[in-house]
Design brief:
It holds the Pfam family Glyoxalase. By secondary structure, the protein is α+β, with helices and mostly antiparallel strands. It has 3 helices and 5 strands; from the N terminus they run ααβαββββ. Strands 1, 2, 3, 4 and 5 form a 5-stranded mixed sheet that branches.
Length: 128
């Protein structure tokens, strides 16, 4: 039977793909290609303590969780030290939302890219 086996990617519209790729590369450490792509291979970085996962979540049209009403998608990026990353982003002048959230899934924080897209940064709880 044909079935979905995982998330293939997250795609964003961009007014200037090269500039936005540089921002993600310079500020969040993503190894963006010159074409503005990066692929994560979970088998390459998964451990018994951090097996790695990607989630697809659907939200109601009126949610404020994704940011501004016109934002149709939000990236959720796994990070290994949320607080240090947020400190570094603030020091570089990146807009960082003032709160973090702790849950059974780990710790969450948010920043905004230069095109106004809210980006969720996630430090997973042990075993996630």
């Amino acid at each position: 039977m044909a079935r979905v086996t995982g998330i293939g990617g997250v795609f964003l519209r961009s007014r200037d793909p090269g500039k936005l790729a540089s921002w993600y590369r310079d500020h969040l450490g993503l190894a963006m290609s010159e074409h503005g792509t990066v692929t994560f291979h979970w088998a390459d970085c998964a451990t018994d303590d951090q097996p790695g996962s990607t989630t697809l979540a659907l939200f109601p049209q009126g949610t404020e969780y994704l940011g501004e009403p016109g934002q149709k998608a939000m990236l959720n990026l796994r990070v290994d030290d949320l607080i240090q990353l947020l400190v570094r982003l603030r020091a570089r002048g990146v807009e960082v939302l003032p709160h973090t959230e702790d849950s059974e899934y780990g710790r969450f924080g948010w920043c905004v890219d230069p095109e106004g897209n809210r980006v969720e940064l996630w430090e997973p709880a042990d075993g996630m």
